[in-house]
Specification:
two-stranded antiparallel sheet, 10 helices, mainly alpha, three-stranded antiparallel beta sheet
Length: about 260
């Protein structure tokens, strides 16, 4: 535990040489890595394994415990034993943490509840041992979706020939709508926080002074070609061959 907190406070630079990232970035990276560990291989609509759920909550409580010490002062009154009062400066959680952190924790609990709701379903996945005998002559089944070669790692869901019953369809739609609302709420909180963050002038001065310098010549030529610009045309010009190149191109366009 001491080593973990030291790593966070030193910005992941255990040498203490001051070359690490900020504490906020270190915590953000730790949460991202934890998410990849717990949810990175969860490609099925099913309850999260007990050990992973326990790990997620335990580690998140540990990482977020630093928020208990991010406080702001406010004037308050203290009553002494003799009945007199005096003005003191008390502490409370910083306003953005006080408002947004409980909301995010509630959204997290709601997502886990949605996954817990998939204990008994009318669909299963190809090569699922629990339903290995479901695809026989008496109860024929069919894939509910066709997986492309570019997404070979995703499991293929299966349903019976008659498909899902109407109650099961309604339940899936309800869970889908609920998850969409959770995503929108989380994005709204995230965008609100980003809008409040002040961008240092020193960072602004380091940015390129024109869009062409940000996106590069290849993207600039594709975007500025007269009369032929379209997202499809731009992608054809770039000849992106990997996900890494796609993310790099998107980052350059966003920076511009």
């Amino acid at each position: 535990m001491k080593e973990r907190f030291s790593k966070l406070l030193l910005g992941e630079d255990m040498s203490g040489g001051g070359k690490g990232v900020s504490t906020a970035a270190a915590i953000s990276n730790a949460i991202t890595n934890l998410y990849a560990t717990v949810f990175g291989s969860c490609h099925r609509l099913e309850p999260l394994p007990v050990e992973k759920k326990s790990m997620w909550r335990r580690e998140m409580d540990c990482l977020l415990s630093v928020c208990d010490y991010i406080v702001e002062f406010f004037p308050s009154k203290d009553i002494l034993p003799d009945g007199t009062t005096r003005e003191v400066m008390a502490t409370r959680p910083r306003s953005d943490i006080y408002v947004n952190l409980p909301a995010l924790e509630k959204l997290d609990d709601m997502l886990l509840e949605i996954l817990d709701g998939f204990q008994k379903t009318e669909f299963w996945y190809l090569n699922d041992k629990a339903h290995k005998d479901s695809c026989d002559d008496s109860a024929p089944c069919r894939p509910a979706s066709h997986r492309g070669e570019e997404r070979w790692w995703l499991p293929v869901p299966c349903v019976t020939k008659s498909g899902l019953t109407e109650p099961a369809r309604r339940d899936l739609r309800q869970k889908h709508d609920c998850a969409s609302q959770i995503h929108k709420a989380a994005m709204a909180i995230n965008n609100g926080i980003l809008a409040e963050i002040k961008i240092p002038e020193s960072y602004t001065q380091t940015l390129p002074k024109c869009g062409r310098a940000s996106v590069g010549d290849a993207i600039y030529r594709g975007m500025s070609f007269p009369g032929k610009f379209s997202p499809e045309y731009l992608l054809d010009c770039l000849e992106i061959s990997s996900e890494h190149e796609a993310l790099e191109a998107a980052d350059r366009v966003e920076a511009a």
